[in-house]
Design goal:
The structure is a single chain. The protein has about 280 residues and is mainly beta. The chain is about 5% helix and about 60% strand.
Length: about 280
């Protein structure tokens, strides 16, 4: 609980500094509107969270790296209904004093739809989102699998509100339940997000993105990939600084450290992104 409160404090401090409005959180795209973001990501971990939540060195001086190219896309079917998908191509490596394993290929694919339930200037926006995760082009028995090779189904409730005219930004809250087929545990997912304009073209965004395991999965984890264990908790702080080059295009730099967790890798992700959207 202390780690969670500390993380929320970090988000609040970022918010205290005076996002350009793209499709964020609970908001849906206008009919025919789109948002697409292509990213290059680098994740590095030489530590893990143990069952008590303490940071430990990976065994045998190990390191885990994940280089990936990802694409995220949203499209407005109607003003109230937005469809989305996300996919990535990964190059991962698990290296230690005793062995070295590498793998590359298409990771898991997300397909989803967000539906706006309610909107008003006084209250904000309330939406619901259904997401299905499909295994990518890899096998569970690979020496270093890119994922758990199973299907996930998630239902999420989202609430967003503009902070104008008091502040040039927005706030967003999300909570969801992810049902996971096979051995991995089901998960309770939560997200706290704030975003602000920094003048004419710059913007910033901060998210506390969390996963809480229901602990109803298999205790056996032998894949060799420390980020795809069956029962894990994880809290990540996602910090973004962006620049809107034109009304339809912009760039973002991201830093996402793993703040707290149990039974999973403890590292950080660095990213550079190029996005396109309806002007």
């Amino acid at each position: 609980m202390k780690k969670l409160l500390a993380s929320l404090t970090v988000v609040a401090l970022v918010a205290a500094f005076p996002v350009s409005s793209c499709f964020a959180g609970a908001w849906t795209a206008t009919q025919g509107g789109y948002y697409e973001k292509a990213s290059f990501n680098f994740y590095y971990a030489d530590k893990s969270f143990d069952r008590e939540g303490n940071r430990r060195d990976l065994s045998d001086h190990g390191t885990f790296t994940d280089y990936n190219l990802s694409n995220y896309f949203e499209y407005g079917v109607t003003d109230s209904l937005t469809v989305l998908n996300s996919l990535s191509y990964k190059w991962i490596e698990n290296d230690n004093d005793l062995s070295r394993a590498t793998a590359h290929g298409i990771g898991d694919v997300d397909l989803g739809a967000r539906y706006r339930l309610y909107r008003s200037d006084a209250v904000g926006v309330v939406s619901t989102q259904l997401l299905v995760k499909i295994p990518g082009g890899y096998h569970r028995n690979d020496p270093l699998p890119l994922g758990n090779h199973q299907y996930d189904t998630e239902l999420r409730l989202l609430y967003g509100r503009s902070l104008y005219p008091q502040l040039p930004g927005y706030a967003n809250l999300e909570v969801g339940y992810r049902l996971r087929a096979g051995e991995p545990s089901d998960e309770l997912r939560y997200l706290v997000e704030v975003g602000f304009d920094l003048g004419k073209n710059f913007f910033t965004r901060a998210k506390l993105d969390g996963i809480y395991s229901i602990d109803n999965g298999s205790r056996l984890d032998g894949s060799g990939n420390p980020t795809t264990t069956n029962n894990f908790d994880l809290g990540k702080l996602d910090l973004t600084l962006g620049y809107q080059v034109t009304p339809a295009m912009g760039v973002e730099l991201g830093y996402r450290p793993d703040l707290y967790g149990q039974n999973t890798a403890a590292g950080a992700n660095y990213s550079v992104s190029l996005y396109f959207k309806t002007p």
